[in-house]
Specification:
The complex is a heterodimer of chains A (580) and B (531).
Chain A lengths: L2 H65 L5 H13 L4 H17 L4 E5 L5 E3 L12 H10 L4 E8 L4 E15 L2 E10 L2 H7 L5 E6 L5 E3 L5 H4 L5 E6 L5 E9 L2 H52 L13 H63 L4 H30 L7 E3 L1 H8 L9 E4 L7 E3 L1 H20 L9 E7 L5 E8 L29 H11 L3 E6 L5 E8 L6 H5 L1
Parallel strand pairs in A: 11-13
Antiparallel strand pairs in A: 1-2, 1-5, 3-4, 4-5, 6-7, 6-9, 8-9, 10-12, 13-14, 14-16, 15-16
Helix pairs in contact in A: 1-5, 1-7, 7-8, 8-9, 11-12
Chain B lengths: L2 H11 L4 H14 L6 H17 L15 E5 L15 H10 L4 E3 L5 E3 L7 E3 L4 E5 L14 H12 L10 E7 L2 E6 L3 H8 L23 E7 L4 E6 L12 E5 L4 H9 L5 E2 L15 E5 L4 E7 L4 H4 L2 H10 L14 E3 L22 H10 L9 H6 L2 E6 L5 H14 L4 E6 L1 H10 L4 E7 L5 H9 L14 H8 L2 E7 L2 E5 L2 E2 L15 E2 L12
Parallel strand pairs in B: 1-10, 15-16, 15-17
Antiparallel strand pairs in B: 2-3, 4-5, 5-7, 6-7, 8-9, 9-10, 11-19, 12-19, 13-17, 13-18, 14-18, 20-21
Classes of the chains: A alpha+beta (580), B alpha+beta (531).
Chain lengths: 580, 531
């Protein structure tokens, strides 16, 4: 990853971590607060339910207390009728029927039953069809509870159907002499009670039977709110057994919503912060990277040998100091290079002079010896002078020819022309150059597939190949079994894709390690006895260098040498760039 | 013509109407203040003298019936039909009785008297027919003569209807001059009584429909507006029995008892079947008296075929019959006579008295009947029955139907049968019942006879069955086997009327007699009660 990316990522992480920690802590604090509120809410809802149930029970108890009295106009009148007439006549029953409903409504009751002798229902406005029937339950309830409210399922006549309803009910007996009445009054546990408990979107309530059957359904929100266990308040009958339960659910939807909102807000803040940080990081990184890019460009230029390249110094900070140091280094390198070039040039000339002198010196000795021999034999008038003369002059002439050849080659090497670049197909060039070896040399040519064209001088490239193959031929000739020698020429695209490689490999004895550094030096040869001048590989090196490429030598495992020529695809492109 | 002269004329022209008119005269005489004890007569004379002294103009206190006036009265529900052959409920037979005369009529004592007939049926043994001479000069409301052909056609309608049993044994009705001839094996002993049923009323031409009704009764129909719940009748001037005293009778029905009571209390109507109870403690505008009619209207539960696998089974009907606590029906109504019953025959016609257990019902026995069927094709257990919510239809114009239905629902509830009440107009109810498109319905059956067989025949006619299938056979036995209806109670009517309305009577079927009704004096305010 580039420095710019690392920088932005690091900056983003540095910004995100504290935000995330802050968000988590905030969420936990809010959640804890809301959870406590929720528990309080549940407690409050339960107390509301119990309070409403108690209120309903109290109302019923008060209603039955007011009814079960001889001072009550309806019950009192009924008792007087009984005392006066001994029974309730049909006319008075009709009066009771008319009165019953208004009394029931006046006390906000939903159920009202008055039974007389033999438990005969005298008043039953909530279910007038029950009038005249026997209902011992009323008197039994009054005896069992004595006005204490209980809950029971009762039947009432709705508009058109018989409906079973849950009522809070209380019953009391009232007596006048021998005549007794039992009065039971009840209020329906209905939607008004549940409405007092409900809060829109927060609390819902319903009434269920012990077997789970729903007696009074909750609102449409029930299923949405009922994610936590419901609060259950039992409604007990006169035996203490639950006849139904009021179930209330309190939604923790607020908690989830608030937590979600907090999380969302944190996420949004984090994203905003991240965006700002990324933007700032990008700007800073761009500024830094621009300077570093300049340094990179400068380094590449230096690698290419462009020691005149300078990077701009835009700031006085550390990056600016680096840029200044770089420029200073380049300046120093420039100076050093100039010196080195001069020194190398001198050294090269010295080496060439030394080698040239050495090469020239070698023929001079035989010439000198031949001339001395001639002079001595001439002075002594050696009888074999003519023979010696012939031999000595022949030696002198050979050595002079040799001197002339050395001078000529040196001259050629020194005057080697600059390459004339053109787009060539390397495989084609290699194939045509090596065609003259077909049949005479164990040469294996393996052209690589999909080789791109390169900028090169076709003639000089052929020279390179010929020199390398000649060199390989000499190498395999040194094998103990020259017939087993083999030369392979391989072309391929370089690993980075920016070059073409030509590999010439033999299975000769290879190059000793101490000579590997010298094989490309002019006049270095191991084949003096064969007339080698030591310029073949130097010329190869020179041509490859002039093409912007490079040549390397490695020994092959198991014997043999491998020369790898790397040539850029385009003229002027440095191979170094691809390695960076 | 004065009322008294009219009575005398009618008595002379129609001797068989004598008892009725004589009864009216007797009642009038009884009500006449000058017929009281001596002290009362003296007090009355003093009072009259004081009034005369105070008001020297002509005395306004009539002492005899006068013609004219308008009376508004309540019906016991809306009539679903004005076709005599379809009349069943009290309102229907009341209306039919005013619009259509039959060959015979039943008087308030239950005796048979000729109406359009000129005399009793005569068996012509030589020809094997029964001849009934017709009253000469009688005309329909449209002025056309009531000929023997018209009467024969009207009776043929009866023969083709669901009440064909009225002419049981008759194979053809022929017109023979001024008489009709009934061909076939006719039971002469009961023929006149059967022909006195309102269902045998003589109609002109086509079947009555809407306002286009042409009858022969003392009143003719001027309008029947169901939306306004009003029927207007006017006196038929050319009525062969003498023009009614009233010029107009307005019959109303109400969708709530309060509506009727309020109208009566404020003086808008003169005759109410609910009395005065709407405004607790309030004094009605005018003083009122009450007249009670006989308990001659049977209220029953009928059964339809919508859930025929339930309501079509006799055991289910029997279970309902057992489960009903009929004692509670005694408290229904506004003080009129109510007699809970399990019989379709009224007590005065020999109907069985209610068993003591039937006052509270026998739910255990009813459930046992249902459970005995549990192994049948369709179990009739509570759960199975609760699945199908039965519908109990009531007539929304009959004030007590809802409470009756509630008691039926309570009985069904004890059996575990879910049910609901649906209130319909009388015509909708009749249409649903006729189609069989109902489960249960509350019906009324009224007949001006004290004949058990006739009541049973009428009861059998309440069940949907192929036409003509009700004729002949032992009606009592078939009733027992089919139990087509479950009787609930017989009820009478108590008519509260303003004191200026006189001559109000009920006939044997509990129908109010408007023909002899007249207005007498001014309406009076009620006497204040002592605190």
């Amino acid at each position: 990853m580039k420095l710019r990316g690392r920088f932005i990522l690091t900056l983003a992480l540095a910004a995100l971590v504290p935000i995330a920690v802050a968000a988590v802590i905030t969420r936990e604090v809010v959640a804890r607060g809301l959870r406590e509120d929720y528990v309080d809410d549940r407690r409050n809802v339960e107390s509301t339910v119990r309070r409403e149930v108690q209120r309903l029970s109290t109302l019923v108890a008060e209603a039955v207390q007011s009814l079960a009295s001889s001072s009550n106009w309806m019950v009192g009148g009924l008792l007087r009728e009984l005392v006066t007439r001994g029974a309730v006549g049909a006319d008075y029953q009709r009066v009771l029927r008319e009165q019953g409903r208004s009394v029931m409504r006046g006390l906000s009751l939903d159920v009202l039953t008055i039974t007389g002798a033999f438990d005969e229902v005298l008043v039953s406005p909530h279910f007038r069809a029950a009038t005249g029937e026997a209902d011992p339950a009323v008197a039994a309830l009054s005896r069992a509870t004595n006005g204490k409210p209980v809950f029971a399922l009762d039947k009432v006549m709705n508009q058109a159907t018989v409906e079973t309803v849950l009522v809070a009910k209380a019953a009391l007996g009232v007596r006048d002499g021998d005549h007794a009445l039992a009065v039971a009054a009840g209020r329906r546990l209905g939607a008004d009670l549940l409405a007092a408990v409900r809060r829109d979107g927060r609390v819902d309530a319903r009434v269920v039977a012990p077997d789970g059957a729903i007696l009074l359904p909750g609102t449409s929100q029930w299923s949405a709110l009922a994610r936590e266990p419901a609060i259950r308040v039992p409604l007990v009958d006169r035996s203490g057994a639950p006849v139904a339960y009021i179930e209330a659910v309190v939604s923790d939807g607020d908690l989830d919503r608030v937590l979600f909102n907090v999380t969302l807000a944190s996420a949004v803040l984090a994203l905003l912060a991240l965006g700002v940080v990324v933007l700032i990081g990008f700007l800073v990184a761009r500024s830094l990277a621009r300077d570093l890019d300049s340094l990179v460009q400068g380094s590449l230029a230096a690698a290419r040998g462009d020691l005149d390249h300078r990077v701009p110094v835009r700031s006085r900070d550390e990056v600016g100091a680096v840029a200044s140091a770089f420029n200073f280094m380049m300046e120093d390198l420039r100076t050093s290079k100039d010196r080195l070039v001069i020194a190398e040039r001198i050294a090269a000339w010295q080496e060439i002079a030394r080698r040239l002198a050495h090469e020239i010196k070698n023929p001079l000795t035989p010439i000198q010896m031949a001339m001395d021999t001639l002079r001595k034999t001439w002075k002594k008038q050696h009888p074999s002078f003519e023979e010696i003369f012939e031999e000595s002059t022949s030696t002198v002439l050979e050595e002079v020819d040799r001197l002339k050849r050395i001078v000529t080659e040196f001259s050629d090497f020194a005057r080697m022309p600059k390459p004339e670049f053109a787009r060539i197909d390397v495989n084609d060039a290699v194939t045509s150059s090596l065609s003259l070896y077909q049949g005479s040399t164990p040469l294996e040519l393996r052209p690589g597939p999909g080789l791109p064209a390169i900028d090169a001088d076709r003639r000089q490239l052929a020279q390179v190949l010929l020199n390398l193959v000649e060199n390989a031929r000499d190498a395999i000739a040194q094998r103990a079994d020259p017939a087993g020698g083999k030369i392979s020429v391989v072309t391929r695209v370089g690993e980075a894709g920016d070059r073409v490689e030509v590999i010439v490999e033999d299975n000769g004895p290879g190059v000793p390690a101490d000579r590997k550094e010298k094989v490309f030096s002019p006049y270095f040869t191991t084949k003096e006895h064969k007339g080698g001048t030591g310029l073949g590989l130097a010329i190869v090196h020179r041509i490859v260098s002039d093409h912007g490429g490079r040549i390397s030598l490695t020994n092959v495992l198991g014997g043999g040498a491998r020369f790898t020529v790397e040539l850029p695809l385009r003229n002027g492109t440095a191979l170094l760039a691809s390695r960076i | 013509m004065s009322g008294r002269a009219g009575v005398a004329r009618l008595s002379a022209e129609a001797p068989w109407r004598g008892p009725a008119r004589a009864g009216l005269a007797a009642r009038l005489a009884r009500k006449a203040p000058w017929r009281g004890p001596a002290r009362a007569r003296l007090a009355l004379a003093l009072a009259l003298a004081a009034v005369c002294a105070a008001r020297c103009s002509a005395a306004r206190a009539e002492t005899r019936p006068r013609y004219g006036g308008r009376v508004e009265a309540a019906l016991l529900g809306a009539p679903a039909t004005i076709d005599p052959v379809q009349a069943r409920s009290h309102a229907e037979i009341s209306l039919v009785g005013l619009l259509f005369d039959g060959l015979y009529r039943l008087d308030e004592l239950g005796g048979v008297a000729p109406q359009l007939a000129a005399g009793p049926p005569i068996l012509d043994e030589a020809r094997g027919v029964v001849r009934i001479p017709l009253r000469p000069g009688a005309i329909f409301h449209d002025g056309s003569a009531i000929t023997s052909a018209a009467v024969a056609a009207s009776l043929e309608r009866v023969r083709a209807s669901e009440v064909a049993w009225i002419l049981s044994g008759v194979t053809k009705v022929n017109a023979e001059g001024d008489a009709i001839a009934l061909v076939g094996a006719v039971d002469l002993a009961t023929l006149a009584q059967r022909l006195a049923l309102p269902q045998a009323g003589i109609v002109a031409r086509a079947a009555p429909r809407g306002d286009a009704v042409i009858g022969s009764g003392p009143f003719s129909l001027t309008s029947l507006r169901r939306r306004e719940r009003t029927i207007r009748l006017v006196a038929f001037d050319d009525y062969y029995g003498g023009r009614p005293y009233l010029d107009e009778v307005v019959l109303r029905w109400f969708d709530s008892p309060d509506g009727e009571v309020r109208r009566f209390e404020v003086g808008s109507s003169q005759i109410s079947l609910r009395g005065v109870t709407a405004f607790a403690g309030a004094q009605p505008k005018f003083a009122a008296d009450a007249v009670d009619g006989p308990a001659a209207v049977l209220v029953f539960v009928g059964f339809g075929a919508r859930h025929a696998d339930v309501t079509g089974r006799r055991e289910v009907r029997a279970a309902l019959d057992l489960a009903l606590a009929r004692g509670g029906f005694s408290a229904l109504g506004a003080g009129e006579q109510v007699i809970p019953t399990r019989s379709v025959v009224p007590p005065q016609a020999g109907g069985a008295a209610l068993e003591p257990w039937a006052r509270v019902g026998d739910v255990a026995a009813a459930l046992a009947k249902l459970h005995a069927l549990a192994s049948g094709a369709r179990p009739l257990t509570g759960q199975a029955l609760a699945r199908d919510r039965l519908e109990v239809l009531i007539d929304d114009s009959r004030p007590d139907d809802r409470e009756v239905a509630e008691r039926v629902l309570r009985a069904l509830d004890k059996l575990g049968v879910a049910a609901s009440i649906s209130a319909l107009s009388s015509t909708e109810l009749r249409a649903r019942v006729d189609r069989g498109a109902c489960d249960l319905w509350i019906g009324q059956l009224a007949a001006p006879v004290n004949d058990a067989a006739t009541w049973r025949q009428l009861a059998l006619g309440m069940a949907p069955a192929p036409r003509g299938a009700r004729q002949g056979g032992d009606a009592a036995r078939r009733l027992e086997l089919e139990l087509p209806i479950v009787p609930l109670y017989f009820r009478g009517l108590r008519a509260s009327h303003r004191t200026d309305v006189r001559g109000l009577t009920f006939d044997a079927s509990g129908r109010l007699g408007f023909a002899d009704l007249f207005l007498f004096g001014d309406p009076t305010t009620p006497r204040r009660k002592r605190p």
